[in-house]
TrEMBL record:
It comes from the Bacteria. This is Candidate response regulator, NarL. The modification 4-aspartylphosphate is found at residue 65. GO terms for cellular component: cytosol; protein-DNA complex. Pfam families: GerE, Response_reg. Keywords: DNA-binding, Phosphoprotein, Transcription, Transcription regulation, Two-component regulatory system. Residues 261-326 form the HTH luxR-type domain. Residues 16-132 form the Response regulatory domain. InterPro entries: CheY-like_superfamily, Sig_transdc_resp-reg_C-effctor, Sig_transdc_resp-reg_receiver, Tscrpt_reg_LuxR_C, WalR-like, WH-like_DNA-bd_sf. GO terms for molecular function: phosphorelay response regulator activity; transcription cis-regulatory region binding. PROSITE patterns: HTH_LUXR_2, RESPONSE_REGULATORY.
Length: 335
């Protein structure tokens, strides 16, 4: 989750209203009336300033002048609705334009309602309250969902929400961010706004399997003796597309303790224990070299010393001894 979204969820429960109008008298009138009603008020006198303030503060509702110099209210609304962080914010147009085509244009741009000028504060407040009820419920649900997802971190289960059509990361807990950086750091180039390509591809395959009523397999990514497993949990929103947004739960398992135990049990060096671990996993020397950042020749020399210390002649025999020991320590170990 972005800092702006987190700040919005953590702020006080009072409604935050962004008022956008290029006429100072209109701003002053609404500012005073809204503050008296208990709202916190932000103001903007241009379309560009409105977009900046909306993204920074994530208001609960926007009162938007339709006709302004430069970027008009219709374009501001379209851009707010196009942004994932601001698309949910209800917009009420304030307009002196009463022709049907202008009212339709406002609704098509993303407005949920409109009030006509000259502005009557009591009417504005009444219209706002209708739409703020939904905004308050959405905020409360988002806060509860955030608390539940962050709680997963405490138990070692990280979570992310990914939009399937474009791979955008809509949410990630702190642990999820750290794990994604550890396993996929530097990729893709738009990190951290996009999920790693491997995750997006797996999600789309999983949705296709779900459509065929086949339970989708989990994605497993390895990093040395560590493994990160991704499990598709549930759909969290339609995201404006057919594929929607999906909550994915991540769990990391590490065999570092197993490697250390083999080192002690067989009197191996740390690197020899790592080589034996991957031999037990069925990897060939070239693959082990790639995993450990060594050359195949170096892996071969390590393996020769391992065979001598274990008193066996083949890698198959060494793997069998290692597997027997590993399964005593970790019965669920998968070779």
């Amino acid at each position: 989750m972005s800092r702006t979204a987190a700040a919005a969820l953590d702020r006080a429960r009072g409604d935050l209203v962004l008022v956008v109008d290029d006429v100072p008298d209109n701003l002053a009138l609404l500012h005073d009336a809204l503050e008296e009603s208990g709202c916190t008020v932000l103001v903007a006198t241009s379309g560009a300033a409105a977009l900046q303030r909306a993204l920074q503060a994530l208001p609960d509702i926007v009162l938007l002048d339709a006709v302004m110099p430069g970027m008009d209210g219709f374009e501001v609304a379209r851009r707010l609705k196009a942004g994932p962080a601001t698309a949910h914010i209800p917009i009420i147009f304030m307009t002196g334009l009463t022709e049907t085509e202008h009212l339709v244009a406002g609704l098509e741009a993303g407005g949920v309602d409109y009030v006509t000028k000259p502005i009557k504060p009591r009417e504005v407040l009444a219209r706002m309250n209708v739409h703020l009820g939904s905004a308050r419920r959405a905020r409360q649900e988002a806060q509860q969902a955030g608390q539940a997802r962050n709680a997963l971190d405490a138990f070692g289960y990280a979570s992310i929400t990914v939009r399937a059509d474009d791979g955008r990361l809509m949410w990630q807990t702190p642990l999820a961010r750290d794990l994604l950086l550890a396993y996929f750091g530097g990729h893709p180039p738009h990190w951290p706004n996009l999920a790693p390509q491997a995750v997006t591809d797996w999600l789309r395959r999983s949705l296709a399997d779900a459509n065929r009523q086949v339970e989708p397999p989990r994605l497993v990514v390895e990093l040395g003796a560590r493994r990160l497993t991704f499990r598709l949990h549930q759909q969290t929103g339609d995201g404006g597309t057919g594929e929607g947004e999906w909550l994915i739960v991540m769990r990391e398992v590490s065999d570092a303790a197993v490697v250390e135990a083999m080192s002690l049990c067989f009197k191996l060096t740390a690197r020899e224990a790592e080589v034996l671990y991957w031999v037990a996993k069925g990897k060939i020397n070239r693959d082990i070299a790639d995993i450990l950042g060594a050359s195949p020749a170096t892996v071969k020399k390590h393996l020769e010393r391992i065979l001598a210390k274990l008193g066996v002649e083949t890698r198959t025999a060494a793997a069998a001894m290692a597997l027997n020991r590993i399964r005593q320590l970790q019965p669920q170990f998968e070779a």
